Amino acid sequence: MTTLSPYDSMSPVTQAAYRAKAAAADLAPLPRAVKDDALLAIADALEVRTAEIVEANAKDVAKARENGTSEAIVDRLTLTPERVRAIASDVRDVAKLPDPVGEVVRGSTLPNGIDLRQVRVPLGVVGIIYEARPNVTVDAAALCLKSGNAVLLRGSGSAYASNTALVRVIRDAVGGAGLPADAVQLVPGESRDSVRELMRARGLVDVLIPRGGASLIRTVVNESTVPVIETGTGNCHVYVDAQADIDTAVEILINSKAQRVSVCNAAETLLVHQDIAAEFLPRALDALAEAGVTVHADDRVMAYAKDSKATVVEATPEDWETEYLSHDIAAAVVDSLDKAVEHIRLWTSGHTEAIVTTSQQAARRFTQLVDSTTVAVNASTRFTDGGQFGFGAEIGISTQKLHARGPMGLPELTSTKYIVTGDGHVRR
Amino acid sequence: MTTLSPYDSMSPVTQAAYRAKAAAADLAPLPRAVKDDALLAIADALEVRTAEIVEANAKDVAKARENGTSEAIVDRLTLTPERVRAIASDVRDVAKLPDPVGEVVRGSTLPNGIDLRQVRVPLGVVGIIYEARPNVTVDAAALCLKSGNAVLLRGSGSAYASNTALVRVIRDAVGGAGLPADAVQLVPGESRDSVRELMRARGLVDVLIPRGGASLIRTVVNESTVPVIETGTGNCHVYVDAQADIDTAVEILINSKAQRVSVCNAAETLLVHQDIAAEFLPRALDALAEAGVTVHADDRVMAYAKDSKATVVEATPEDWETEYLSHDIAAAVVDSLDKAVEHIRLWTSGHTEAIVTTSQQAARRFTQLVDSTTVAVNASTRFTDGGQFGFGAEIGISTQKLHARGPMGLPELTSTKYIVTGDGHVRR
Fold this sequence. Notes:
The structure is a homodimer. The first copy, chain A, is of the alpha/beta class.
């Protein structure tokens, strides 16, 4: 007769969450050196067991091809020995980053002599729901471990074999380094039910971070009782002010739109001040044409399109809110900076907006009035990125206002607690 | 023929939220002086129009008495001229606090020459759902205005006349000071439906802060699609370590439990290390008896109760998770500090836990392992409070890990945004 464990009556997802919570309690007080050793062990294990990982990945790739998946997505799914080495190298980079846990965020001695310290602590259990790319599995595990958190990983069904192999390698390394293996778990089950359970595990899971397309993020935001950090949707704007250097404006527009079109910090809408439209738009439309970008133009932009090389279609109201993630851009002429701000506030997803201007007053007003995670002045929207910001790594880009906003590095994976130290202090 | 406004098809609550969002955009860039002037105008108006406020309040009080409301709650509801003066004085104190908006949280020049600044900005629209006390109406409005936020106030139906009068006075003063009056609004309607609508106003309302009993908070947490900051429930513990000064331990226990029993930072459970139980418990039980506290004791505490003056009842498992908010305390003897931590982690609401000890190692281990908003060492649990912490004011005490944890002052009513400044920087 076997003894019943309290876990026996729970669903596999709830069991995983309980185990993660227990592991999180063990991880929280660990010093940096112990966590870094575990990260280095993970990097080594990924390299040593590359064959096992690539073999598992081949099954996912074969299945994807059978299902007629596009080659672009198959490419994102594919792990080669070189890619596994790069992933291992990224884990070593995370080990080199400072540990946010233990940082004294603020501290003072109160008038009554009590010492007050606000100290960074891990969040506890972090759930990540993500799509396709198996490198996220390792990235997320490394960032969560480094910040003292246990992680529940819910990747795409299409990468299940790859993720299973990666998590097995990670868990072995973590356990071998003397840390609880349950600090890193793949959420069991490939069905939608396991996502739903994860979203209801309030009290066990401290935060859910969905990474992926807009519909995944919307679902998690609407259905989760666990607190969610909304990430990633980027309907970014480039506003070319009346007083802008034309060369700079063209260069920033093309870089923001076309340097890489499939990412959340790529520009999706161009707004041009009416006073500079006649000078700027002909140049801009030709440059967009050269970059292979189709312009979804309002009437006033359309007026300049006839004489350009540009591929132009008429903009509909939908264009103003679309995140194309493709070689498309919406474009409009506006009467003033304030009208540009108004347009942005109405349609933006709140990710990144850029202004190109030589006017200090315009730059100041735009940065004051635009309410997005990042406002760029005379710089490409493409800089909104944890790596570019010097954070060393990024778990996602928060487009919400609570907890973290913009690129999230290691400190954004922590909470704080207060330590109140007295010598017998009581309240009068 | 009147022109249709876009608001006409909306419910009153959604209309209020849209108006709040528009007001928030106007408030965000305002400098401190303008906001402080509005706060001082509110304080003056509260004093000038005291009669109007007290008269409205008398209706609520009369209705409460008719409904047989307890005198304690009637007292909390009642506004006298003195109390209105005190509320006005609190508003002047908020005006004296530094403005969190505009604070540069971090900043650096990136290797490519871009200047990066992370700057505090208002959250936008803050919804407060609260019970009974009409002073919260003014407090919340003042703190939100100071931090550049618009506020939607949803007070208790039992204070509707009082809140209506207070908000009318506040809005008149805000408008008179040249700020948008819609920055402060009472959520229309006294029914539960208006709360439900507020909880679904994602995209219009940036955060909901429920203040009140556990069931109100649970409802909001479970049903809201707007991000919620969970506040207030406090099942706080006092742990008396093997190495504790007995006098200090008794004093901290009595202060934590009985200095004011109805508040979230009052102690609800006493845990005593077995090695000090024989020395400490007889003294503690007598002191609790003197303070009028009933002890819900486990078997091992019960053994000491017979010879004491204490009123003692047997503890049930429910006692370990109960926030009494009354002259009651649960009490248990534990085998070790680690067992105390285990008990706390299992049952706590995560508010405040205190250790009484003369051992540096014990203090260090307890503060490392306990995962609550505040860990007190040789100090009363009653210090967990924005006023006590020197924050000047408090909108509530967050017991969750995201965004803010522990007492929330003005900075906790803000988000941040990044300002990226280049001179034509593009990404290569």
